């Protein structure tokens, strides 16, 4: 049996007008599979660089708009459903949904989000038909624009293509300039260059491939941050993280509450005994089913205040605040040195402010379209009101340094030296870590250290927890801030501004960890300018599409 290699190569390049739907759909499915393996649980991030090659090949022929939409949508729905079906896990085990219904909802969710890869495919097909294969040079910008439009329309930021590169710091640090959109564009540029390289005999196509590769290579040599502030290296902060590993649907009865509260207090005291000088600057409790009404429960405030005073540590806890008929998912910081009255408040000793979660989880913490869905769909954890303000608290840290002996002279150095440092802490809750603009808001308000508390037990053993970690890790890189991440069941770790995961706690155990975080003050381009790159990509895409319409009308004018 002989193989017609010329015919096979011609089909692979996507040139024939009559390429079969089955062949093009197979290419789209290959792209979807490559994207799936590029994200957790697999984390084969290098596959992302070639993942769109098959889809782009399918878009290289003179296909219809309907087929282009189908190919992009098919890629999207398979990729998104496979990587985000942890949604069904939460509904089945904690929302009492039937398995078939839960997976049906997850599939519907994926089908809606897949519209945006479909729009990318339509736009790219239109550009190729009008400008030829050199139009693949626009693919990185069109893709970045489609990701931003998805976020703007649906509010869903999860698993943007650039997130796959969070473990590759040289690439991920591009987010310090243009956010995740720039990282996504960098990745797509390689797939586009590969496509263009199949037609190097065409001069324009070859030049475009060279430009893409040179541009992608030059971006890798950008410095890690832009315009750092003088003296930006900040204080080292000793932080204790408490991971309680409580069942996400725990009981609210007083006996269970007291048992779980005492367990958290015991873990806290045990961890502080392991810190240098048996003292910590900050203790962080995870978001968990342990419902603490800090503002409304005077006895609880006293118990937490006593622990803070005994340990000399600021205590950051996830709480529920009640104001009238409104409930807020909140963060409170308990001061170990309480002031007797407001008249003692100064710029160096301000009152600790409560943070109310701004981005609530749909169907978990509120019901969208309540007039329509409210009577049919209950919330899983409660019915909360969103907060409005980015809250950053100033913490006054006193560091005690003990006496030391010089190895050379044996001379005892000064006995005890106390130094005072000030850090500004911004804390955010759960999947707010997936929203770059939100985390950026805390840094713009002056945060030098970030804290993320979460309850990832809802994910179970699915890929959701590792994907959530990847988003928080990218927030650390793009803002150039250490993030202390403490969760109910894992993944709890210190995420450094360089993207490192430090001393990760094992998942699904009750335990504690001591971290040395650094407060940082430098400001990245992304923190200053926000989504300038994504918006520029959107503008460029619209301009290119408009130019194709003008060219089309010009071609129809009789000459």
Question: Can you give keywords for this protein?
Answer:
6-stranded mixed sheet, 559 residues, 2 domains, Nitrilase/N-carbamoyl-D-aminoacid amidohydrolase, alpha/beta, globular
CATH class of the largest domain: Alpha Beta
The CATH topology of the largest domain is Nitrilase/N-carbamoyl-D-aminoacid amidohydrolase
CATH superfamily of the largest domain: Carbon-nitrogen hydrolase
**In which range does the helix fraction lie?**
40-55%
| Low confidence ranges | 1-9, 11-18, 226-231, 401-416
Output the number of helix runs.
18
Structural category is alpha/beta
Strands ordered across the widest β-sheet:
5-4-3-2-1-12
* Annotation, overall tally of beta strands: 12
Distance between the termini: 52 Å
The major sheet is characterized as: 6 strands, mixed
Strand content: 15-25%
Q: Label the overall shape.
A: globular
Report mean pLDDT, rounded to a whole number: 86
Radius of gyration, taken over Cα atoms and rounded to an integer in Å = 27 Å
Q: How many domains comprise the coordinates?
A: 2
Tell me the series of helices and strands, N- to C-terminal: HHHHHHHHHHHEHEHEEEHEEHEHEEEEHH
